[in-house]
Predict the 3D structure of the following.
Amino acid sequence: VPLAEYRQKLREVIQKCLDNGTLVILTTIPPAHGLADKSVEYARAQREIAKQMKVPLIDYQAAILERRPTDWDGAMEKFAAYDGYDVPTLICRDGIHPSNPRNWADDYSPEGLAHNGYVLRNYLTLAKYAEVLRKAGIAGEPAVPEKPEPQAKALIEPPNAPWWPKAPALGKPTGDVVEVSTVEDFERALESAKPGQTILLADGHYMMRRYVEVRTDGVTIRGASGRREAVVIDGADSRHRELIGFRNCKDVMVADLTIQNTLYNGFKINSETDVQRLTIRNCIIHNIWQRGVKGVKVPVDQRDRIAPRGCRVEYCLFYNDRAKRKDDDAHDIAGGNYIGGIDVMFAEGWTISDNVFVGIQGSTREGRGAIFVWHDSRDCIIERNIIIDCDAGVCLGNPHRPDDVTVHCTECIVRNNFVTAAPQGGITMVYTKDCRVLHNTVHEKPSKWGRLIRMVFDNDGLVVRGNLLSGPGIRNESDSAMVIADNAIGDFSDLFVDVAAGNLHLRRADERVAGRLTPLAGVDEDIDRQPRGRTCDIGADALVE
């Protein structure tokens, strides 16, 4: 519409509304990609008409340009990694409509008003509406809110044992280091992160307002003190149901901190956006009610290029204070049992090692795996993990297999792990190829289902050797050609240091176990990284002579 015609018609519409007793609140149009100068002209006309006709005005365009004078336009190249409305500026990727990124949904802080166009528009509209009501005598002045009490810097007291794996300390951070001590500092540091930067969190309890993401290569997020229980990133008050995500980034590390209290995912790997070589190290993952670490599906036409490769989860503690309840999660598809520790799809060359999992349980003890790797994952190593009183231990694959997946896990190795009291299965293989399960120790006695090691459906080339199984042993429901040999099966309860605590180290030599094997290829060390001799013990632990 030509500007002169627009002016005339706008005046006519306003006058007709006023004539029939309707109060008009006019708003300026936002700036638009490729039409910035023209939108300024039309907004100027709107301001003039509002003043002349004495009607209230919401100056949306001015509010946008005040907050983002140079980068309001989501169609800019700098925002190419974002989709649709999820761009973190005020106009979305189409260059016309207000943005609505989930990170700042319903966030009316100054930061939220600078990142979410819908939120800014809502805020301005509500503020102007309240002003009109007050001037009309319909509403009084707003109440002055009481100053909130400061949040206590609470520390957690996680379970611990001297025999659990301990992470070697990281060195002092070098290069570009950003020190943060508040939630706001942390959010800003992530949003403005530069490649190679270290974000160093002071000890404290960070009550998160929303989900946050890492979108920059080479970033390290770590607790300053190195005490992972002293930096607590807490989702109890967050408006979202996930805590920390990773999107389109490579060579990122998160270390020496705790995440806790979120309904869906603690660490969310947005694998469909090309996330590579992520390391999660020496973290505590506490009271996460679906997945502590989640890696999602990758589009079939992009798997060769962007499937997540070379990631590591190491020296972490996953624990929950109680079993999940049905009423915890209205979206639980498994009656309160949709819960697990690590759940990753299309993983290639991952290492999951030296972690401890305690009490990851569903409402009826039918939860998912403490470690669950599936959907065409390849060349992954799962080693030296300790799994205690979880519904399921290590799961390579799943009976559900979508049409675009033939094999869940190929050439993966599960070695030197302790698994205690996992009724759904200590170590389970379903739709695997050329995988190896070597020198693990699994205890469950009595056993509800007899699934200390279980094979289901196709598992061509599977090798199961050198495992110490204290309980019913192996449940084979597969017709595939496999090697199952040199495993010790029986009641070994009195042979372990402390069964109740999950400590399956050997307390003494036993002829059923000791020196029964020559070292198997790829298993030169035991669970404590002690070298195995020329003859070695069955199971994860090798007694030191």
